[in-house]
Specification:
Length: about 190
Amino acid sequence: MRIETTKIDGVLKIIPARHGDHRGYFSEVFKDGWFRENVADVSFVQDNESLSAQAGTLRGLHFQTAPFAQGKLVRCLRGRIFDVAVDIRAGSPTFGQWLGEELTPENGVQLWVPAGFGHGFATLEPDTVISYKVTAPYSPANDSGILWSDPHIGIAWPVAEADAVLSDKDRKLPKLADIPGYFQYSAQ
């Protein structure tokens, strides 16, 4: 596996090696010891999968607060997504900044989004399936988020606002400036 840093400290691209021949390929997409040693010393407690039937489905920007704050390891199993992480760690030099990465089954890229980030994605093809490992179980009492179209963040989504397929919950999320400082930045 290969790691690529991003413009935001803590968010990493992980690219598993693929060993292929005329039959296809084999790839180790997760290895606990390697992840703990090279990325983050965390335990994953749950694997989630979502299907988005329509291209232009936008989910996010979601996060959970302590004590159920989640790190996420995201990959796309079918279709294509534009995956986004937003730094919401108070005091971070990149607070309020975002990065986006296209994830596909063909490129095999996974995105590590640690706790302290809002996470969301837009589907670029119909019937897109993503899988993500999380470091804490879902907790409705700690479920939170920020508005996907917050102009102060300015994410360059590949989906026009009028065309985005959203849940009612995601339409009503607050802007980043309107949420408490749930996470504090600490330099590594």
